[in-house]
Amino acid sequence: MAQFRAKKLDLGCFINIKVIRDHTKRKVFEQHEPERQALRYIIRNTSLPQRTRAQAQLQLTQMHCYTRPTQIRNRCIMGGRGRGVLRDFRMARFQFRMNALAGKLPGVQKASW
Amino acid sequence: MSGPSCARALISATKRVKISSPTTNGQCLPLPRCTISGTNQRRHDSTVVEASRHLDLTPGAAEAPPTSITPANIDQELANLRLPRAVQATYLDPLRHPPTLGIKTAELQLRSYSIRNLEVFTDFCLRAAYYLKLAAKGPIALPRQVERWTVPRSNFVHKKSQENFERRTVSRGIKILDGHPEVVATWLAFVKKHQYYGVGMKANVWEYGSLETGKDMDAEAERIAGRLGEQLDLVGGKEGLMVKHAQTVEGMLGSEPFKARWGAYAAMGGAGGVPSAGRRVESVRVGKKAARARAGKEVDAAKAE
């Protein structure tokens, strides 16, 4: 969503719209996390009046989808791919292989055992 | 093994030293003492005497049988020359102080992907501990961590043809027994100052206090508050500083050369995933200059009062 997006490019890795979108989602989630957690706490707290809890529920559902943690997906920093991204290197499997064979990943070698 | 020449020299030095596994290290402990009383020591004495004889011009000295160095035996003479103690020590296992009580005060863990770098630096740490008069135990070989990844060779389909990669992390531990907290801190600072490429370090430090630790901590907090004054609320976040430099920093972050400099375009560039990647540590200057500057400030403050 454009209203959340940074006016100036604030990323240093491979850039495409999916990467920018994911980055925006991360920032928005970070910004709204306390609010979400507070609402979640109110909803789950049985000692609070039912009305308050229902209101909190409504508020939580009405928050923008970018504020949800489930919207965040790890993407490849070298090619922006969303699948097969190795968490350790934040790279998709093929980029990982290329970089590993080029010796750009410290300590990673071809294994044989 | 590609690295700066100084580093290569250090590594080849260890090859000569033949740093052995920790099991044999234990057996080699009394070695230095043996060599001190060995033939090398005697050789050293004789050379000293020789030198004095050459200088001595009294008739009695002239009569003494001079040891002649001819081109034939010069190689042997050179080989028999004793190295300076400090140089000779580098060829031997690091010396150790025996612990007095055996209470563990610090534990340093070193990790690397390269066993040679690790061995060199562990040796260095042990020597540093010896010269700081700390009783050190080690190097303790900790379990090697092997991470493996299997990825398809191709960028698309063909799952049947895959390739395996692995990363082996070797680690060594050093235990410091009965160390004074300040000495241990000095040792850790020294080791950190001279940290070696490709070797990561992690330290646990234990301090033992009296039963009134809570009171001591309160007193310490008050002392710090008194010394820092208004600056105390800047500790940690340093909000004032951040706001002041926010513009310049933002500009720097966006500039291409800056990003290239910290490796944003490299393979694992921009490692924002690392927990402390975004943190910038305020550098504290230590030394005569800084001390002088501080003293100057105090004098100014006194004058103002």
Automatic annotation (TrEMBL), chain A:
UniProt keyword Ribosomal protein present: yes
Cellular component GO terms, alphabetical: mitochondrial small ribosomal subunit
GO BP, sorted A to Z: translation
Gene3D superfamilies: 1.10.287.1480
Keywords associated with the record: Ribonucleoprotein, Ribosomal protein
Domain of life (superkingdom): Eukaryota
Molecular function via GO: structural constituent of ribosome
Family stated for the protein in its record: Belongs to the universal ribosomal protein uS14 family.
Entry protein name: 40S ribosomal protein mrp2, mitochondrial
Species annotation: Recurvomyces mirabilis
Automatic annotation (TrEMBL), chain B:
GO cellular component: ribonucleoprotein complex; ribosome
UniProt cross-references to SUPFAM superfamilies, sorted A to Z: Ribosomal protein S10
SMART domains: Ribosomal_S10
GO biological process, one term: translation
GO molecular function: ligase activity; structural constituent of ribosome
Pfam families, per database record: Ribosomal_S10
Superkingdom as given in the UniProt entry: Eukaryota
Domain Small ribosomal subunit protein uS10: 107-204
Keywords (A to Z) from UniProt: Ligase, Ribonucleoprotein, Ribosomal protein
Similarity remark: Belongs to the universal ribosomal protein uS10 family.
UniProt protein name: Small ribosomal subunit protein uS10m
